[in-house]
Specification:
Strand content: 25-35%
CATH superfamily of the largest domain: Vaccinia Virus protein VP39
Structural class: alpha+beta
Number of domains: 3
Distance between the termini: 38 Å
CATH architecture of the largest domain: 3-Layer(aba) Sandwich
Number of strands: 19
Length: 398
């Protein structure tokens, strides 16, 4: 992470200030929220190239450390490096050490096919049939499908960065135009796909998670979301070498109120992964179970107002705001930290983690003179985030 260590001095900057295209908007100071003695920390609101984020300033031994805030960091990383350098230049402090100089610039991956979740919430539209592969690994199966079905829009989900980079290279080499890639939890991604639009969902060789079954892709909630997004006669296709995982999924699928499932053992596909080839050589069985959708669902509304009430008494609520996590059946809220904005009344930052247990979201709520909003942007409108926001509004009214 970009950072600079510099000598401790009294050369504080004045906010708002602008230098070399970087604007420093305000500085927030840590509030002793947990009643534990700790050194002071600061969050510096920064804006560059129309992107807004925070920098963290804190003591490190006998010096100061300035680095990117882990919650609001943005890309490309060069923006963070430039902003950290600009702060030190404005402050006129003596640098002890730094990793913000660019001797070897890393090439950022192309954004043409790699999309974030905001794209799928706000901008994704297609008249083509959609097919989704969850956990595409090396990408061999996904590339094969896309190459042989140019009129279908494929979406590949993966959380392993090297696998994503490998697939993006192959998309460019093979000149494919019908794959979009997203680094996101499949269990939550489905909430942002319109109903009755998907022809196939491939889940090939997911991690079995025998010791942590709550982390499995397949669950009752996932299956219900799959059925909502699938077209009539669309399919959810599991392929696994794990007999335990296969039995677990079959039990879930056979407990549906209605549906059709097909089971195969050692079925040959047109393309297989290198791991599948290895397992077959070892004599390992490969299990397939396919759920066919026979229902049509109503579309869902992605619009939700993540605003707060007009006035929030920040200076009073931070005295009583709960330190323990609020845990409900399908969402949670944890107040992580609080920062007060100097020279402004009823102003500060509340750092929170909330939403789904599977994909918790970390954000800041910015309160400026009693008016609250999410710093940077609003949360994605997942059902867990919506429920958490409603409860947050109640907490901030007190």
């Amino acid at each position: 992470m970009p950072h600079i260590i510099f000598e401790k001095d009294n050369n504080n900057i004045t906010v708002p200030s602008t230098i070399d295209g970087t604007q420093f908007e305000f500085i927030a100071k840590s509030y002793n929220f947990t009643q534990k003695q700790r050194k002071e920390e600061y969050r510096i609101s920064t804006k560059k190239d129309d992107k807004r984020f925070l920098l963290t300033l804190k003591e490190k031994n006998e010096n100061y450390l300035l680095k990117a805030d882990k919650v609001t960091r943005i890309s490309p990383v060069q923006i963070l490096k430039d902003s950290i350098n600009s702060y030190i230049k404005l402050r006129e402090s003596k640098i002890i050490s730094s990793n913000t100089q660019n001797f070897n610039k890393k090439v950022e991956p192309s954004q043409e096919y790699l999309k974030d979740m905001d794209f799928f919430v706000n901008d994704f539209k297609t008249q083509k049939e959609i097919q989704i592969e969850i956990g595409f690994g090396s990408g061999r199966h996904l590339l094969h499908q896309a190459k042989n079905n140019p009129n279908i829009q494929f979406i590949g989900l993966e959380i392993h960065t090297p696998s994503i980079e490998q697939l993006l290279k192959q998309i460019k080499i093979q000149e494919l135009k019908n794959i979009l890639v997203v680094n996101y939890d499949a269990r939550l991604f489905m909430e942002f796909i319109s109903s009755n639009k998907v022809g196939k969902i491939f889940v090939h060789f997911p991690v079995p998670w025998d010791k942590k079954p709550h982390r499995r892709v397949f669950s009752n909630a996932f299956i219900n979301e799959a059925l909502r997004v699938l077209k009539i006669d669309g399919t959810l296709e599991l392929r696994t070498d794990s007999r335990k995982y296969f039995d677990y999924c079959v039990e879930l699928l056979t407990n549906l109120p209605k549906g059709k499932i097909t089971i195969d053992i050692n079925k040959d596909l047109e393309v297989s992964s290198k791991y599948e080839d290895r397992w077959k050589k070892q004599g390992k069985n490969i299990y397939d179970v396919v759920l066919t959708c026979n229902q049509e669902d109503k579309d869902i509304n992605f619009d939700f107002d993540f605003s707060f009430d007009e006035f929030i008494d920040f200076e009073n609520i931070i005295k009583d705001i709960p330190q323990k996590a609020i845990v409900e059946e399908d969402f949670f809220i944890h107040i992580e930290d609080i920062y007060t904005i100097e020279d402004k009344t009823n102003s500060g930052l509340i750092q929170i983690t909330f939403g789904s247990f599977d994909r918790p979201l970390s954000k800041y709520i910015l309160i400026e003179e009693g008016k609250a909003s999410y710093y940077q942007d609003s949360p994605l409108p997942t059902s867990a985030n919506i429920k958490a926001h409603k409860q947050l509004k109640g907490l901030l009214k007190k």
